[in-house]
Each structure stands twice: as structure tokens, then as C-alpha cells.
Write a structure and sequence with these properties.
The chain is an alpha/beta fold. It has 28 helices and 16 strands. The strands form three sheets. It has an eight-stranded mixed β-sheet, sandwiched between helices. Strands 3-2-6-5-4 form a five-stranded antiparallel β-sheet.
Length: about 625
């Protein structure tokens, strides 16, 4: 196999329950067909995911053993003065070699932030800006300090406002609200009248789906920090930071997430009277005056705890491939995440992700489409990435139809009456959408469309996984949890390198570090434990069928001749039955990642389809 540039050869090999798939996929497939389930013993029932961190915006300082600053990012310097480093925290970290998270006691109550002090051996594993990581490797480095307030200010907070679709005025007021903890403070910061600020905040809260100020602040702070993992309530962490009792921590957590005082008391198992007395003590201990102030401080502290967790850790997000995130509300109060790459005047084309990826569209494909006059869009389907699972659990039995609901919602939000589709996977969604809203869909281009799991031969690692799902559907969710737990950068690379070893076009395209980074970006959200969409779609794929699609003359299929999962001829044979009028083309020098290796071909093929119609 050619040497691949981004490779895991730089990292120590990791061992885990995915090794049977990595090392002997053929033997595993044979064992599965023989009825063996021995390999399933190491699969997880559930995991605590890792957070995805905007490391480029962290406020970080590196200290020597005396507590002197060796290096500090500009964002840290704006928040913590050199003479305000907590000497007691430094001494305690050096003595115990444990991370400490506490409020920055030097600040006023209205703008307090959380600060983490970590011993150097642990801190070197944290997600942080590259220049800070270099400084942490210095022989003199003893402690790393991270200030979360730097994350929830400036550009990061503005990005969170944009994700909720807030107007410039709403964003100014919202940022003031986060910084000051009150509507009056927000009015001062935004230089508007108090009554104006009240109305602006109310409308902004509706857009974010928040009914209380504290919940609104919590959502903004969460989003400005990154993507949070599932499976952690935070009570133990809060109790540890501020030496609260478990019931006090439960009360603080509930209040910071937007519950009323009565609701928070009930959640913590207290009477209203007891809760009132406890909150008086808690507010004094934490140095805050209002629930919104509490919400910001607690959410920042929880974010730092996720960043500094030595067991699970956090995954840094490459700032060069950040998606233009937008979040819109469903009628049930859950959110749909999508990206609009623009330009606004381009012809809209929705890029569908596969069941093993999320919405992040490859940069080479986005640029190729834009060069042909298109406006690329991408949506996280239900339970994928940043899109919530719908509140009605029935969606799990029909995930492709549930995805159509979200597409229609986004089109309504963007006022789109028609659009084209490109499926880099997700062909089942394209079929469901064509049947559900035929007037909405114009031209459809499918790239390497997957047949249902029950059809055809499969090979390689991913083929072994699909064979396992087909033989043992009850293992899909366990496999998904195991994948989430194992989705470290090193293991992701090993998995890919093993999968593409017999596909020269895919090996070539993944030797480009930028292409690999784009690929990895589609996998990263699974590390947070968000696997519900994957489980639902993989389960639905087991028995998916479709009769011939009406109007399939507007469809075209590009199939890579080196697809390392399916037999390309069998794929085309299957889809000819579903799309009898479509054009099919085998691309001889392409593999599974055709959209990465041949972006101009993909964009040009769609452009040719639209021009043919116009002619």
C-alpha cells in the first residue's frame, strides 16, 4: 500500500473491540455467516461521548512551576491579568497533579467566567490552539490554564447567534445579555432602550426555542464552545468545583438549564422553601446575583470540565473546515441543523450525506459546485450531527421519511420552491423525497448509491460490518456506541487506511491532507455519542425496498469502479430496477470517495443535466 500522508503512523496504535474488523474482515464475515457472535463481546451498550471544541478560540496560558506565564493567547490576556493568576490553584495542582476548575474570582459578578488549571502531563492532551500546544511542550511548562470566558466572547458568541438566525441587533443584545446576565445590562451594551432590549430578547429567545433567559444563555454558551457530548448530567462535576452537595448541584444544574425555581426545586427533590434557602447560599458561594448569571457560569464550567476530562477528552475542530451552521426549530421544539454555503443567487442543490457521515460537505465539492453556478446546501438528518432526534420516537421506524420533513422545513425557511439533489450516499432519502414532494425536486445525481443491506455481495471492513448488521440487527446500536467510544483521530485513520487499501483511487485522494480532513469532519460528531440517526437508518436499510420511481429520467447515477464495499455492477443492476429511466455511468478511475477525487466531474454532470432540461 502506498504511504499515506495524513497517517496514523505518527501515533501509538490503539487496541479495542474494533480490532476484529480492522485486522481480519474476511474472517469476521465468514464467522458471522456461520452464526458466531463471539466477536460481539466487546461491543459497548452505551458510552459517554467526547466534546468537539473550537480550540482556535480558547483562552490558554502556559505557566512555569512558580506560576509565571510563559505563554498566553491574546484571548486569555484580555480576560486574566498576569498578576491575577490564582497562586493557591497553582500550588494545589502541582501538589495533587489534578485539574482544578473554579470561577475567576478577580472578575465582577456580572462577567465572571470559569478557569481551569491543569498539570502539564494531562493538559498536553487537551484540545487547544497549536501555538499553545507548542508552548506546553516546553521543558519549563508545568501548568496550563484555560479561561472559558474567552470562548463565549467575540467571534465564537457571534457565530452562535448566527446559527440561531439572529439579526444584527438581536445578536448585539444577546451578546450583551451573556456578558452581563441581565436585560438591562444587555440594553446598555447594545446602546438601546430597555423596552427595546426586552422585545429584541423575547424574539431572539423564540428563534432559539428558549422560554427563559437562563435557558437562552445556556444555549448560546454551549454553541459558542463547540458541540457537547451526550450522556453527562454534570451534577458530580458541579459538586466537585464548588463543594456543593449533590442536591445543591442538582438544583444549580436544573436552574441553569432554564427551569423555573419551582421546577428546579422539584427536580432536585426539595420543597420550594428549602430550595429558596439553598439558592441564597449557592448564589453567595458562586458570586452571582441572577439565574442568567448562574447559567453562564455553570455552562462555562461544564464546558471546561469536558475539555479537561483526562479519560474522555475533547476533539479539536479544525477552524478551516468549520461549517456555516444554522439551526431552525421544528414544531416540537427540537432543532434541525443545516449549512448554506452560498452564494444566495446560485441554483440551490442539496448535498445528502451517507448514513455513516454527517452534513459537512467536502470543500472541493462545494467549490466545484459554486464554480458551476450552484448554491450548495447540506442538512444533518434526524439524529445526526447537530440535528436533534424528533420528540416522537416513531421517526426511528421511518427515518428517511422523517428526513423529508426536515428538508421541507429548511426549504420553507429559505423560501426555496425547487432544488437539485446530490447524494453522496443518502439515496434512500432522495427516493423518499421524490415521492413525498415531486414538485420540489428537479434533477437528482446519485454518487455510489448504497443498495439495501440485504442485496448483493460486500467486502472489506465496512462490508463485514454490514454483513454483521444483516445477520444480527440487534448489534447495530452496540456497534454504534462502540464506534463513538473509539472514534479517536488515530483509530479513524487506521479504519480508513485499512478499508481503502485495495482501492488505488481512494488511496490517492486520501493522501491529500485536506481531503482527509474533510472526510474526518463528517465523522467527528459521532464521537459525541450522537448515534441515533445512524442506528435508525442502518436498521431501516436492512429491509428497505422501493418500486420504480416516477420521473426517473431526471436522475443520473455515477458509480466508482473501485467501490471497496459493494460490487459496482451489482449496485447498478439494483438501481436500474428502482430508476428505470435514469442514466448510469461507471467511472473507471474512481472509488468510494468519487466526490473527493472527481468534484469537477460531479458538478459538471449536474450542470449538464440542468442545461439539457433548459434546452
Amino acid at each position: 500500500m502506498d504511504r499515506l500522508k495524513p497517517g496514523a503512523e505518527r501515533a501509538v496504535r490503539e487496541a479495542g473491540p474494533l480490532d476484529p474488523w480492522l485486522e481480519t474482515p474476511g474472517a469476521l464475515t465468514a464467522a458471522v455467516r456461520g452464526g458466531s457472535r463471539a466477536f460481539a463481546a466487546g461491543l459497548a451498550k452505551a458510552v459517554e461521548g467526547r466534546s468537539l471544541i473550537r480550540a482556535d478560540r480558547m483562552g490558554v496560558a502556559v505557566l512555569d512551576r512558580a506560576g509565571a506565564i510563559l505563554f498566553a493567547t491574546d484571548t486569555f490576556a484580555r480576560l486574566v491579568a498576569p498578576d491575577r493568576i490564582d497562586a493557591e490553584a497553582v500550588a494545589k495542582v502541582l501538589a495533587t497533579q489534578r485539574t482544578i476548575i473554579a470561577p475567576n474570582a478577580d472578575e465582577t459578578a456580572a462577567s465572571r467566567s470559569a478557569v481551569a488549571y491543569g498539570p502539564i502531563e494531562q493538559a498536553r492532551q487537551w484540545a487547544m490552539p497549536e501555538e499553545a500546544a507548542r508552548a506546553a511542550r516546553s521543558p519549563r511548562a508545568a501548568i496550563v490554564v484555560v479561561a472559558a470566558g474567552a470562548v463565549t466572547g467575540g467571534e465564537a458568541l457571534l457565530d452562535a447567534c448566527a446559527a440561531f438566525g439572529l439579526t444584527p441587533l438581536q445578536s448585539r443584545v444577546a451578546m450583551g445579555l451573556v456578558r452581563t446576565g441581565s436585560v438591562r445590562g444587555a440594553a446598555r451594551e447594545a446602546d438601546v432602550a430597555y423596552e427595546t432590549a426586552r422585545k429584541v430578547v423575547a424574539d431572539a429567545m423564540r428563534r432559539a426555542g428558549a422560554t427563559r433567559l437562563s435557558a437562552f444563555i445556556e444555549r448560546l454558551v454551549r454553541l459558542s464552545f463547540g458541540v457537547w457530548p451526550v450522556g453527562r448530567d454534570g451534577e458530580a462535576m458541579l459538586a466537585d468545583i464548588w463543594r456543593l452537595s449533590q442536591r445543591q448541584a442538582a438544583l444549580v444544574l436544573a436552574l441553569s438549564q432554564g427551569l423555573s425555581r419551582g421546577e428546579a426545586a422539584k427536580a432536585a427533590g426539595m420543597s420550594d422553601a428549602v430550595a429558596k434557602k439553598q439558592l441564597d447560599v449557592i448564589f453567595t458561594t458562586l458570586g452571582v446575583r441572577t439565574s442568567p448569571e448562574l447559567s453562564k457560569l455553570v455552562t462555562e464550567a461544564r464546558a471546561l470540565a469536558m475539555l479537561t476530562d483526562a479519560l474522555q477528552g475533547a476533539v479539536p475542530v479544525d477552524p478551516d473546515i468549520m461549517e456555516p451552521l444554522r439551526l431552525i426549530l421544528r414544531t416540537d421544539g427540537t432543532h434541525v441543523a443545516f449549512s448554506d454555503y452560498g452564494p444566495r443567487g446560485g441554483r440551490p442543490v442539496l448535498i445528502l450525506h451517507s448514513s455513516s457521515a454527517t452534513r459537512a460537505a467536502p470543500g472541493v465539492l462545494v467549490r466545484a459546485l459554486q464554480a458551476e453556478g450552484f448554491r450548495p446546501l447540506a442538512i444533518d438528518r434526524p439524529g445526526f450531527g447537530m440535528t436533534d432526534a424528533p420528540s416522537d420516537p416513531a421517526w426511528r421506524t421511518a427515518p428517511f421519511e422523517a428526513a423529508c420533513d426536515d428538508v421541507l422545513l429548511v426549504c420553507e425557511q429559505l423560501k426555496l420552491s425547487t432544488l437539485d439533489l446530490i447524494g453522496r450516499g443518502g439515496a434512500q432519502v432522495a427516493v423518499a423525497l421524490a415521492k413525498r414532494a415531486p414538485a420540489l425536486i428537479d434533477r437528482v445525481l446519485l454518487v455510489n448509491p448504497d443498495p439495501p443491506t440485504s442485496h448483493g455481495r460486500r467486502s472489506g471492513i465496512f462490508g463485514a460490518v454490514k454483513e454483521t448488521f444483516f445477520r444480527h440487527p440487534d448489534l447495530i446500536e452496540k456497534f454504534a456506541w462502540t464506534l463513538a467510544a473509539q472514534m479517536t483521530p488515530t483509530r479513524s485513520w487506521r479504519l480508513l487506511a485499512r478499508a481503502i487499501e485495495n482501492s488505488p483511487p481512494d488511496r490517492a485522494v486520501m493522501s491529500d491532507g485536506r481531503n482527509y480532513a474533510d472526510y474526518a469532519a463528517t465523522l467527528r460528531p459521532f464521537a459525541t455519542g450522537r448515534v441515533a440517526g445512524y442506528v435508525a437508518e442502518q436498521t431501516a436499510m436492512l429491509g428497505w425496498t422501493s418500486g420504480p420511481v416516477n420521473g426517473s429520467g431526471r436522475w443520473r447515477v455515477l458509480q466508482g469502479a473501485h467501490d471497496f464495499i459493494h460490487m459496482p455492477t451489482e449496485v447498478i443492476q439494483y438501481w436500474r430496477g428502482v430508476l428505470p429511466e435514469a442514466d448510469f455511468e461507471m467511472i473507471p478511475d474512481a472509488g468510494r470517495y468519487l466526490v473527493l477525487s472527481h468534484p469537477a466531474l460531479v458538478a459538471g454532470a449536474l450542470k449538464e443535466m440542468t442545461e439539457t432540461k433548459a434546452a
